[in-house]
Amino acid sequence: MYNQEKIKPYEGKGEKGKLVEEMFDNIAPTYDTLNHRLSWNIDKYWRRKAIKELSPFKPDTILDVATGTGDFAIQLAKMLNPKTLVGADISEGMMEIGRKKVKAEKLEHIIAFQKEDCLNLTFPSETFDGVTAAFGIRNFQDLDKGLSEMCRVLKKGGHLCIIELTTPVSFPMKQLFKLYSKVVLPTYGRLISKDRSAYDYLNKTIAAFPQGEQMMTIFKNAGFGKTYFKRLTFGICTMYIAEK
Description:
By secondary structure, the chain is α/β, with parallel strands linked by helices. It has helices at about 15-40, 40-55, 70-80, 90-105, 145-150, 175-195, 200-210, 215-220, and strands at about 60-65, 85-90, 110-115, 130-135, 155-165, 225-230, 235-244.
């Protein structure tokens, strides 16, 4: 068990997956605003960077895991123009906002949302050319099982593209990020979202989540072949690419 798997968003004996679903349903109305403000909109740049990395492989069918309100799915559809893209998430509250955004962008012919337990995906094996996830896998109750499922539904030769928040490793960004994540992020998150626990939880999972070289081993154990990663914005975010 990885450290972040032990962290739950709310006190209690409930299963982490159910508590994560409850948390995202609760913060869905303010999630986009907080995401963009807390990252100074750099999260949009991180998504574009990841999509450009995936672009040479030209995936026609894409699964966006932990799609949330669909920001990554919408950018993927606009930049890669796949035939179909499924956004999968455990939170109906988040996806309902995503559906409205997709309709406003007139992308319903490409993007569909589907409620899924990312540890037990309902799709047949080798369904998708590409599988993506932005800022979601650290919420998995079982990281190994979630990545194994992502590998299962990916076609042989297909690619996984993940971006995830990470902790910088070099001075002075390491020290500055520690101050920001422990003081600014949870305080501002509580003020905007009115959920005292959610942003404390999200902050703790960043620090606890495996990253960099450790993730390379985890991907290989999940069934992927060639893997590599790139640190973005001084290591605040890390992009991972893995081939099945």
